[in-house]
DNA sequence: GAGTTGACGAGACCGTAAGTCTCGATAGAG
DNA sequence: CTCTATCGAGACTTACGGTCTCGTCAACTC
């Protein structure tokens, strides 16, 4: 009751906050350093000590705000990447599908996203918690693709008995497979052919 | 993996081999222990010390014959798995493709292959040399699938302009994607639908 | 302004696991 | 019998994620 000038929207807090406050510049420095290192070392492991030193920060500062190294890396990536994935609307299923596939493929070619993703997947192989977060991160992108397919099915551009989840997995399966192995390109031509293949249209 | 001491057909060898010889039982014990541990701990990391202790063997004995932990694991898996992958011949492209896809999917359900593969991929994420070996291991299986598709294309069951490499990647992409994420089944029904999807046949 | 509180940089410290080194014992070849 | 390479055992080194401590410093309260 004795806090009339306190922060608003905090009717429950027994004590709002005293003491030194979090330094935003420090947060940025850590995220920037992480992204820089993650992008430079393509796939190579990035250590916590390196991030802290690069950011000019103590390790404890890092662990005060993030529970693990993986969450820092993921935060650094998502902070840079767009959280929103716009669903295309070109009027035709073929056009929409081609747009989404192209956008997915494109994301793997623009640094620093590509090397960062590679590093992140490497880390996720050892860190189950990070693997969950990464799944959640990709969920939005999967949902957009599935939405496009469902719309096409409603309009009758896609057979009613097609397995949409399988089609989504065909796109993301090819994407990750080629992205991680690097044995075949993920360019526009590949996007064209995959789109045609999925819709049963031999070009 | 390492068998440089071939007594015959060695006109160049300055000294054939003196001293105590390699104990075959020891080799088997290591491989068996590795496979057992790899299968039990589904995806969980398997340490070198554990393998050595389980096999009743010194660590140095292990490192005398294998250059790294990953190669031991891969050797344990390939020693168990069939190196030869028979190409099916059902007479029709659809039948052959369905058979290969089904076999690929099936391999992920029979222990100890499935958990071993999972562990191996985890290790490969950190060990580039193991990643190469794993790629080489899967190469034979990819080749079989591509062969089936090429045969179908020659017979005219598949449009001449279809991208066979992309089709192979669709199969293995879906396989690995679902195998590692586990968000969707890899059963016979999925194999049916994937086969139909690839051949443009709405069932 | 004085005092309290919590963030800060720095770095010692711990646990774990891959890989190396050493040692005494042992087994096959000559 | 001797020479040499393998064996089991385990100490040791290195690397890294994560924790703990310490002295300092900034923001908020009284």
Structure overview:
Two copies of one chain form a homodimer. With 203 residues, chain A is mostly helical. The first copy, chain A, has two domains: 24-70, Arc Repressor Mutant, subunit A (Orthogonal Bundle); 93-199, Tetracycline Repressor, domain 2, CATH 1.10.357. Chain A contains nine helices and no strands. In chain A, 63% of the residues lie in helices and 0% in strands. At the A-B interface, helix 8 and helix 9 of A face helix 8 and helix 9 of B. The first copy, chain A, binds a DNA duplex (30 and 30 nucleotides) through helix 2 and helix 3.
Task: List descriptors.
Tetracycline Repressor, domain 2, mainly alpha, DNA-binding, Arc Repressor Mutant, subunit A, elongated, 63% helix, homodimer, 203 residues, 2 domains, disordered N terminus
Task: Summarize the SSE layout with pairings.
The structure is a homodimer of 203-residue chains.
Chain A lengths: L23 H17 L7 H8 L3 H7 L3 H12 L12 H15 L5 H12 L3 H27 L9 H18 L6 H12 L4
Chain A binds a DNA duplex (30 and 30 nucleotides) through helix 2 and helix 3.
What's the short story on this structure?
The structure is a homodimer of 203-residue chains. Chain A has 2 domains: 47 residues, Homeodomain-like (Arc Repressor Mutant, subunit A, Orthogonal Bundle); 107 residues, Tetracycline Repressor, domain 2 (Orthogonal Bundle). Chain A has 203 residues and is mainly alpha-helical.
């Amino acid at each position: 009751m004795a806090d009339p000038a306190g922060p608003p929207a905090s009717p429950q807090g027994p004590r709002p906050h005293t003491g030194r406050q979090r330094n935003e510049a420090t947060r940025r420095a850590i995220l920037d350093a992480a992204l820089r290192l993650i992008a430079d070392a393509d796939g190579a492991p990035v250590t916590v000590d390196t991030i802290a030193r690069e950011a000019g920060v103590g390790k404890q500062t890092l662990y005060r705000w993030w529970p693990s190294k993986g969450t820092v890396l993921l935060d650094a990536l998502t902070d840079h990447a767009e959280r929103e994935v716009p669903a295309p609307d070109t009027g035709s299923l073929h056009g929409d599908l081609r747009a989404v596939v192209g956008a997915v493929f494109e994301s793997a070619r623009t640094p620093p996203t590509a090397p960062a993703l590679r590093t992140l997947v490497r880390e996720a192989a050892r860190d189950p918690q990070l693997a969950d977060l990464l799944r959640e991160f990709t969920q939005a992108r999967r949902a957009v693709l599935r939405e496009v397919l469902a719309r096409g099915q409603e309009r009758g551009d896609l057979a009613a008995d097609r397995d949409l989840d399988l089609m989504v997995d065909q796109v993301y399966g090819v994407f990750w497979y080629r992205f991680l192995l690097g044995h075949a390109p993920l360019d526009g031509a590949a996007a064209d052919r995959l789109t045609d293949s999925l819709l049963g249209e031999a070009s």
